[in-house]
Automatic annotation (TrEMBL):
It comes from the Eukaryota. SUPFAM superfamilies: Nucleoside diphosphate kinase, NDK. It comes from Echeneis naucrates (Live sharksucker). The lineage of its organism: Eukaryota, Metazoa, Chordata, Craniata, Vertebrata. The active site is at H115. This is Nucleoside diphosphate kinase B. SMART domains: NDK. Residues 1-138 form the Nucleoside diphosphate kinase-like domain. It catalyses: a 2'-deoxyribonucleoside 5'-diphosphate + ATP = a 2'-deoxyribonucleoside 5'-triphosphate + ADP; a ribonucleoside 5'-diphosphate + ATP = a ribonucleoside 5'-triphosphate + ADP. PANTHER family: NUCLEOSIDE DIPHOSPHATE KINASE.
Length: 145
């Protein structure tokens, strides 16, 4: 079964949006298999955002992502990576459709509420970065029996 990493960024946590974001994924039929709630180290973030190191906004991204707690989650389901990207919406909230997480909640491109893995390969890499294998729970939903 396919898995993806969804992370509610510090602005989403500070604005108390975590429950609404979780609700959208549950209502879509995805299964939560891991949750992390804590402040994130610069070391983890530098690995996660390594491909952005040369970008001019990289230092402010690190500052923002360490400014408060993050809720990182692993969701499981059919086509979960692509569907999650659609649910989250465009990175720039000005271009995100209404009904998407960013379209409904984001206020600026640098404070865009949530991260979603961009591919199956990216999801696997990110999940291994954020979680140890034992933290990923295998369990059956009532509709899977």
């Amino acid at each position: 079964m396919e898995r993806t990493l969804i992370a509610v960024k510090p602005d989403g946590v500070q604005r108390r949006l975590v429950g609404q974001i979780i609700q959208r994924f549950e209502q879509r039929g995805f299964k939560l298999v891991a949750v992390f709630f804590d402040k994130v180290s610069e070391d983890l973030l530098s690995q996660h955002y390594g491909q952005l190191r040369t970008k001019p906004f990289y230092p402010s991204l690190l500052h923002y992502m360490t400014s408060g707690p993050v809720v990182a989650m692993v969701w499981e389901g059919h086509n979960v990576v692509q569907t999650s990207r659609s649910m989250v919406g465009h990175t720039n909230p000005a271009e995100a459709r209404a009904g998407t997480v960013r379209g409904d909640f984001s206020i600026h491109v640098s404070r865009n509420v949530v991260h979603a893995s961009d591919s199956q390969e990216g999801a696997q890499r990110e999940i291994q970065l954020w979680f140890q294998g034992k933290e990923l729970l295998n369990w059956d939903c009532c509709d899977q029996k």
